Amino acid sequence: MRVIILTNNVLVEEETQLMLQFLGHEVFITSKQLQYYLDFESNQSIEIFDVCIISRTVSNREAERVAIKFSQSKCSVLREVEEINNDVDSSTNLPYRQMKTKQTITELREALVATA
């Protein structure tokens, strides 16, 4: 899979990047593209990725804006969160799936499989 990680600080994503690469995925980490997706209407470049992970360094408001933009694309969106909230009412219809920030390789692998 091709995975893009949108973040405000690329150094924070090193552990996730290494785990994804260990699992055999191509990983692109960027802060510039995050700002591009927030500022402009076009999201055409996201089509080359299978999965977009929105970092915990990105605000909830920005994460929702980006995820809504990507909802019409083939790219699945995961949002890093400290705790997965299973109590979230299903009617809230979050535009992304939640993914734990600190996780094992097995949990990461299964989170990616769930997006397919």
CATH class division: Alpha Beta
Class by SSE composition: alpha/beta
Number of helices: 4
Following the backbone from N to C, one meets helices and strands in this order, namely EHEHEHEEH
Distance separating the two termini? 10 Å
Q: Could you give me the name of the CATH homologous superfamily?
A: Response regulator
Explain briefly what this protein structure is.
By secondary structure, the protein is an alpha/beta fold.
Walk me through what this model shows:
The protein has a single domain (2-115), classed as Response regulator (Rossmann fold, 3-Layer(aba) Sandwich). Helix content is 34%, strand content 21%. It contains 4 helices and 5 strands; from the N terminus they run βαβαβαββα. The chain has a 5-stranded parallel sheet with strand order 2-1-3-4-5, sandwiched between helices. It is globular.
Q: What's the structural blueprint in terms of helices and strands?
A:
Layout: E1 2-6, H1 14-22, E2 26-30, H2 32-39, E3 51-54, H3 60-70, E4 76-81, E5 97-100, H4 105-115
Parallel strand pairs: 1-2, 1-3, 3-4, 4-5
What key phrases describe this protein's structure?
116 residues; alpha/beta; Rossmann fold; 34% helix; 21% strand; globular
